[in-house]
Write a structure and sequence with these properties.
about 350 residues; single chain; two-stranded parallel ribbon; alpha/beta; binds zinc ion; globular; Aminopeptidase
Length: about 350
């Protein structure tokens, strides 16, 4: 594993999604008019109960920590599940070097729909679980379920895959489940003040340099990270706005038109180093991040983030529906003539 220098602006803006720096909420900017008229296209109905069940199934394997049996078992299940929806599934099974120099297994799982279509949309989430709840006030060194952090984005994408198996979107869709996003150093080993190489998003960094299809670049990408909690709020994130402002505009306008404006806020937060950062900087696909932030919490993230409370009790089907239905509408709007 090698690390990469990011563009200067990017580096200045870095606030690691998983290292606890607090992004700052700023102004609001509702657009005067929606970007697209969405009434002409009918997307399939997103089944939030199905997405919920997909999250519960992942959690049932135990924390999906790289190098554990749970990782292997869950990877096998994810692969088989996606293969039941499309024959075009690729698993990148490699080893990556984590913060302490150890090598861990990394399994990126990519499912393609309409692989012959050159206009492609990348939908992605990480499926691994951070090994420790180091933001927990008591049990910092224990593993946790990761129902929201990891599980929720994957649950939404599996439900979209299920729907695409019966109704194609009219564009090519790639669903990428990235591994080893969250194995950055625990709080007690992080060295603040020193410039650290990027120790998160290792599966995505591997994919961005070795995409599943040679010279792969999508029309745009959407990353989901912590999209399942009750009353989640998704502000517009800095790297998304820097690299893919029109995608942000499109997704937020679509969500508002569908009635999900209470989740998709016209507020901004600073840059967050999440998987989309590397999809933008290393692969060149303009990619946004839909991520639950809480401006009232001390670190800016939802209060269950990297704690024991990140379990099925925080998952809410209303939030899953808001995210999943918005994504479906966005991708079905991209069909020719839509
Ligand atoms: Zn995390």
């Amino acid at each position: 594993m090698t690390f990469h220098k990011l563009p200067l602006l990017f580096t200045i803006l870095l606030l690691a999604s998983c290292n606890g720096d607090k992004p700052k909420a700023t102004d609001t900017n509702p657009p005067a008019t929606p970007v697209k008229t969405i009434t002409s296209v009918t997307a399939p109905g997103f089944n939030a109960d199905s997405a919920y069940a997909f999250i519960a199934k992942q959690v049932s394997f135990g924390p999906r920590i790289p190098g554990t049996v749970a990782q292997t078992n869950c990877a096998n299940w994810l692969t088989a599940k996606l293969k039941s929806y499309t024959p075009h599934v690729i698993v990148q099974d490699v080893k990556v070097e984590i913060y302490n120099g150890k090598l861990v297994p990394c399994k990126n799982i990519i499912a393609s729909f309409n692989p012959e279509n050159s206009k492609r949309i990348l939908l992605c989430a990480h499926w691994d679980t951070r090994p420790w709840s180091d933001q927990d006030s008591l049990k910092k060194k224990s593993a946790f379920d990761g129902a929201d952090d990891g599980g929720s984005g994957v649950g939404v994408l599996l439900e979209i895959a299920r729907l695409l198996s019966t109704q194609q979107a009219g564009v090519g869709i790639d669903i990428a489940l990235f591994d080893v996003e969250d194995y950055g150093p625990p709080e007690w080993e992080a060295h603040s003040g020193e410039e650290q190489p990027i120790q998160y998003c290792l599966g995505t960094q591997h994919w961005a340099e070795n995409p599943h299809v040679e010279n792969y670049r999508a029309y745009f990408g959407i990353l989901l990270d912590m999209v399942g909690a009750k009353n989640a709020t998704f502000p517009q994130e800095g790297i998304s706005l820097q690299y893919a402002p029109s995608v942000v505009k499109n997704v937020w306008a679509t969500a508002h038109t569908l009635g999900y404006g209470n989740y998709f806020l016209y507020e901004k937060v600073g840059a967050i180093t999440d998987d989309h950062a590397f999809i933008n900087s290393l692969n060149g696909t303009p990619c946004i991040d839909i991520i639950n932030m809480d401006k009232t919490s001390p670190n800016g993230f939802a209060r269950h983030w990297h704690t024991q409370r990140d379990n099925m009790s925080v998952i809410d089907t209303n939030t899953l529906k808001a995210v999943g239905q918005t994504l479906l509408q966005v991708i079905f709007n991209e069909a020719p003539g839509a």
